[in-house]
Amino acid sequence: MGGGGSTTRRVTFEADENENITVVKGVRLSDSVIDRMKEPSSPSGRPQAQHRSASGTVNDEELKKRIAEELALERARRDSEAQKRRLQQEQMHVRDEFGKLLERERVSSNEHLTRAILRERAATEEERQKAQRFARQLEEKDRELRKHDAYYKEQLARLEER
């Protein structure tokens, strides 16, 4: 805290019965500072705890201000965490809805595919039946042609005999 541009902070502390120093939350002090705080602050031998009572109102106001700041920070952190939880819940909801949508699309595409396959099978079966019908007609025509051929051969043979 030495240099020309540094700001000065007041730290309120007390010494307990074991000469341990209690410091305001969030402030870190080096061992040398703690040792200096344990020493009397003036030649009269007053300990630091007596010095605190002289400037207690200023330090209490600063402490109240710090506590208010910490409370505000804690509220902001809780609000942030609540917002984060809401966001996660919304994300889960969106994922669920997206999953449902994908499932409906999959079912719909499967139904469409199934209908297309059934149409193709029906068309294939119709073509197969047509082919069988044409094959029977062809066989019938072939038999008829053979009959005619045999008849004409027989007629030709009779004509040749005559």
From TrEMBL:
Compositionally biased tracts (Basic and acidic residues): 61-99
Keywords on record: Disulfide bond, Lipoprotein, Membrane, Mitochondrion, Mitochondrion inner membrane, Myristate
Pfam families: MIC19_MIC25
Gene Ontology process terms (BP): inner mitochondrial membrane organization
GO cellular component, one term: MICOS complex
InterPro entries documented for this protein: MIC19/MIC25, MICOS_subunit_Mic19
Region Disordered, residue ranges: 29-99
Subcellular location: Mitochondrion inner membrane
Biased amino acid composition, Polar residues: 41-58
Membrane topology: Lipid-anchor
Domain of life assignment: Eukaryota
Protein name listed in UniProt: MIC19 protein
